[in-house]
Protein backbone atom coordinates (compact mmCIF):
# COMPACT_ATOMS: atom_id res chain seq x y z
CA UNK A 1 0.00 0.00 0.00
CA UNK A 2 1.27 3.47 -0.82
CA UNK A 3 1.99 6.01 1.86
CA UNK A 4 -0.47 8.78 2.50
CA UNK A 5 0.36 11.83 0.35
CA UNK A 6 0.81 13.95 3.50
CA UNK A 7 3.36 11.47 4.87
CA UNK A 8 5.52 11.66 1.76
CA UNK A 9 5.33 15.42 1.23
CA UNK A 10 5.92 16.20 4.90
CA UNK A 11 8.70 13.62 5.17
CA UNK A 12 10.47 14.99 2.09
CA UNK A 13 10.23 18.52 3.49
CA UNK A 14 11.65 17.43 6.85
CA UNK A 15 14.41 15.31 5.28
CA UNK A 16 15.48 18.11 2.94
CA UNK A 17 15.75 20.53 5.88
CA UNK A 18 17.58 18.26 8.31
CA UNK A 19 19.71 15.80 6.35
CA UNK A 20 21.25 18.18 3.83
CA UNK A 21 20.56 15.74 1.01
CA UNK A 22 18.38 15.97 -2.09
CA UNK A 23 15.04 14.25 -1.55
CA UNK A 24 12.18 14.33 -4.01
CA UNK A 25 8.62 13.06 -3.96
CA UNK A 26 7.49 11.37 -7.17
CA UNK A 27 4.23 9.47 -7.71
CA UNK A 28 3.66 8.74 -3.99
CA UNK A 29 7.26 7.66 -3.49
CA UNK A 30 10.28 9.38 -2.00
CA UNK A 31 13.58 9.33 -3.87
CA UNK A 32 17.05 10.19 -2.57
CA UNK A 33 19.88 11.00 -4.96
CA UNK A 34 23.05 9.66 -3.29
CA UNK A 35 25.39 10.78 -6.06
CA UNK A 36 27.18 9.13 -8.96
CA UNK A 37 23.81 8.62 -10.64
CA UNK A 38 22.58 6.36 -7.83
CA UNK A 39 19.14 6.80 -6.32
CA UNK A 40 17.30 5.13 -3.45
CA UNK A 41 13.51 5.10 -3.28
CA UNK A 42 11.00 4.42 -0.54
CA UNK A 43 10.89 5.91 2.94
CA UNK A 44 11.91 2.68 4.72
CA UNK A 45 14.86 2.04 2.41
CA UNK A 46 15.99 5.66 2.67
CA UNK A 47 15.58 5.51 6.45
CA UNK A 48 17.82 2.44 6.63
CA UNK A 49 20.40 4.15 4.40
CA UNK A 50 20.39 7.25 6.62
CA UNK A 51 20.69 5.04 9.71
CA UNK A 52 23.96 3.71 8.31
CA UNK A 53 25.35 7.01 7.00
CA UNK A 54 24.12 9.95 9.14
CA UNK A 55 26.09 11.31 12.11
CA UNK A 56 22.85 11.41 14.09
CA UNK A 57 23.04 7.61 14.44
CA UNK A 58 26.80 7.04 14.73
CA UNK A 59 26.73 6.49 18.50
CA UNK A 60 23.64 4.26 18.53
CA UNK A 61 24.06 0.80 19.99
CA UNK A 62 23.23 -2.15 17.76
CA UNK A 63 19.98 -2.64 19.70
CA UNK A 64 18.98 0.97 19.03
CA UNK A 65 19.77 0.61 15.33
CA UNK A 66 17.62 -2.51 15.14
CA UNK A 67 14.81 -0.70 16.97
CA UNK A 68 14.96 2.11 14.39
CA UNK A 69 14.66 -0.46 11.60
CA UNK A 70 11.73 -2.09 13.41
CA UNK A 71 9.85 1.20 13.53
CA UNK A 72 10.66 1.94 9.90
CA UNK A 73 8.99 -1.36 9.01
CA UNK A 74 6.09 -0.78 11.42
CA UNK A 75 5.20 2.31 9.39
CA UNK A 76 3.72 -0.02 6.76
CA UNK A 77 1.18 -1.26 9.30
CA UNK A 78 0.35 2.33 10.22
CA UNK A 79 -0.19 3.20 6.57
CA UNK A 80 -2.46 0.17 6.11
CA UNK A 81 -4.42 1.25 9.18
CA UNK A 82 -5.41 4.48 7.44
CA UNK A 83 -7.98 2.45 5.46
CA UNK A 84 -9.16 0.10 8.23
CA UNK A 85 -10.76 1.47 11.41
CA UNK A 86 -10.31 -1.79 13.35
CA UNK A 87 -6.62 -1.92 12.45
CA UNK A 88 -6.33 1.75 13.47
CA UNK A 89 -7.51 0.85 16.97
CA UNK A 90 -4.95 -1.96 17.20
CA UNK A 91 -2.12 0.26 15.97
CA UNK A 92 -3.06 3.15 18.25
CA UNK A 93 -3.29 0.81 21.24
CA UNK A 94 0.11 -0.77 20.45
CA UNK A 95 1.81 2.60 19.99
CA UNK A 96 0.21 3.95 23.15
CA UNK A 97 1.36 0.93 25.15
CA UNK A 98 4.90 1.10 23.74
CA UNK A 99 5.21 4.78 24.68
CA UNK A 100 3.96 4.18 28.21
CA UNK A 101 7.44 4.56 29.72
CA UNK A 102 9.25 6.29 26.85
CA UNK A 103 9.59 9.83 25.61
CA UNK A 104 10.69 8.89 22.08
CA UNK A 105 10.62 5.65 20.11
CA UNK A 106 14.39 5.11 20.26
CA UNK A 107 17.05 7.01 22.20
CA UNK A 108 16.48 10.01 24.42
CA UNK A 109 15.94 12.51 21.64
CA UNK A 110 13.79 13.08 18.62
CA UNK A 111 15.30 11.17 15.70
CA UNK A 112 14.43 10.15 12.18
CA UNK A 113 12.09 7.31 13.10
CA UNK A 114 10.02 9.57 15.36
CA UNK A 115 9.52 12.02 12.52
CA UNK A 116 8.70 9.32 9.97
CA UNK A 117 6.23 7.60 12.34
CA UNK A 118 4.77 11.04 13.11
CA UNK A 119 4.14 11.71 9.42
CA UNK A 120 2.73 8.22 8.92
CA UNK A 121 0.24 8.53 11.75
CA UNK A 122 -0.64 12.19 11.21
CA UNK A 123 -3.72 11.59 9.05
CA UNK A 124 -5.11 9.06 11.53
CA UNK A 125 -4.32 11.17 14.58
CA UNK A 126 -5.87 14.37 13.25
CA UNK A 127 -9.27 12.60 12.99
CA UNK A 128 -9.30 11.49 16.63
CA UNK A 129 -11.69 13.19 19.00
CA UNK A 130 -10.52 14.70 22.27
CA UNK A 131 -11.88 11.62 24.09
CA UNK A 132 -10.02 9.30 21.72
CA UNK A 133 -6.81 11.22 22.33
CA UNK A 134 -7.31 10.86 26.09
CA UNK A 135 -7.70 7.11 25.60
CA UNK A 136 -4.28 7.09 23.91
CA UNK A 137 -2.67 9.52 26.34
CA UNK A 138 0.93 8.27 25.89
CA UNK A 139 0.66 8.48 22.13
CA UNK A 140 -0.96 11.92 22.42
CA UNK A 141 1.91 13.14 24.61
CA UNK A 142 4.49 11.81 22.14
CA UNK A 143 2.57 13.24 19.16
CA UNK A 144 2.48 16.73 20.72
CA UNK A 145 6.16 16.52 21.63
CA UNK A 146 7.13 15.34 18.14
CA UNK A 147 5.04 18.10 16.56
CA UNK A 148 6.57 20.83 18.73
CA UNK A 149 10.13 19.45 18.35
CA UNK A 150 9.70 19.14 14.60
CA UNK A 151 8.72 22.78 14.24
CA UNK A 152 11.82 23.89 16.19
CA UNK A 153 14.26 22.09 13.84
TrEMBL record:
Organism: Lymnaea stagnalis
One Pfam family per UniProt: Arc1p_N_like
Domain named GST C-terminal: residues: 47-153
Record-given protein name: GST C-terminal domain-containing protein
SUPFAM superfamilies, A to Z: GST C-terminal domain-like (SSF47616)
GO cellular component: aminoacyl-tRNA synthetase multienzyme complex; cytoplasm; nucleus
Lineage of producing organism: Eukaryota, Metazoa, Spiralia, Lophotrochozoa, Mollusca
Example GO BP: positive regulation of DNA damage response, signal transduction by p53 class mediator
